[in-house]
Design goal:
Number of strands: 8
CATH topology of the largest domain: Lipocalin
Order of helices and strands: HHHHHEEEEEEEEH
Helix content: 25-40%
Strand content: 15-25%
Shape: extended
Structural class: alpha+beta
Strand order of the largest sheet: 1-2-3-4-5-6-7-8
């Protein structure tokens, strides 16, 4: 179970105005490190540790090499923290924004193209064809996707114009992928002949094979003992009778 960050204290009217000003600067100048860190310091001074931590962690991750072995692990931490914060605020401090962009590259099985549609669906091309049967969610410089009702799940971190990620499916097959931002007119637009069927047979099969929960049988209440008309008599031990001494044997 993910531990929820502490709730920051409420802001007064003056602080709310200042918060909006600093957030606006970050939104207008997303690559200005000074604006980001000044906003993070201001949030920390007012006890808003979760948002301050998110800004600093995201900025630190931006400076990480795309080949860093801990990139995805750190990205997952940022993603989980961002999920606990207001979505409107996350959208304001997120850069670059993926909606409407296309990314070209490869995974372990061959060529791969991601197209992040503005409606939240992801369109992708791989050697077997072009599909549109999944959704995407961006939190800061991280992105999570699923295809065919979570038959496969993808996660990636955006470093500059590159996204590096990993994936797994329900049969525990794991693979890696890496793509680069593209505006190539032969690649970026959604092509014809897109397969939009969502294959969710695995969900129905899982429901069909799921064992019904056993409902515990109610325990029968023990009947209350009947009251006795007369109180129980205590048994008293009889005093032992004194033994008669045996007559001594006569000496002969």
């Amino acid at each position: 179970m993910t531990k929820q960050p502490p709730t920051p204290p409420p802001l007064d009217a003056a602080d709310e105005q200042r918060d909006a000003e600093l957030r606006g600067l970050v939104e207008a100048h997303p690559t200005d490190v000074d604006s980001i860190l000044v906003y993070a310091d201001w949030l920390e001074e007012r006890g808003d540790i979760p948002r301050a931590t998110f800004l600093r962690m995201q900025q630190q991750l931006r400076g990480t090499k795309v080949s860093h072995p801990k990139l995805l692990e750190k990205g997952r931490t940022l993603y989980e923290l961002g999920k606990s914060l207001p979505g409107e605020w996350i959208a304001a401090v997120t850069h670059p924004k993926l909606a409407g962009t296309a990314w070209d590259g490869r995974d372990d099985d061959g060529a791969l193209v991601w197209r992040f549609l503005a409606n939240g669906f992801v369109n992708y091309t791989q050697p077997s064809g072009t599909y549109e049967n999944g959704r995407w969610e961006q939190i800061g410089i991280t992105v999570a996707m699923d295809t065919n009702a979570h038959y496969a799940d993808y996660f990636g971190v955006i470093i500059g114009d590159v996204i590096r990620g990993n994936a797994h499916n329900i049969v525990d097959h794991k693979w890696r992928w890496k793509v680069k931002l593209t505006s190539d007119p032969k690649v970026a637009p959604v092509p014809d002949g897109v397969n939009r069927i969502i294959h969710d047979d695995h969900l129905r099969a899982r429901k069909a094979t799921a064992k019904p929960k056993r409902v515990p049988k109610p325990r029968k209440a023990k009947p209350a003992p009947l009251p006795r008309k007369t109180p129980l008599k205590r048994k008293t031990k009889l005093a032992a009778k004194p033994r008669k001494p045996k007559p001594g044997r006569r000496k002969r």
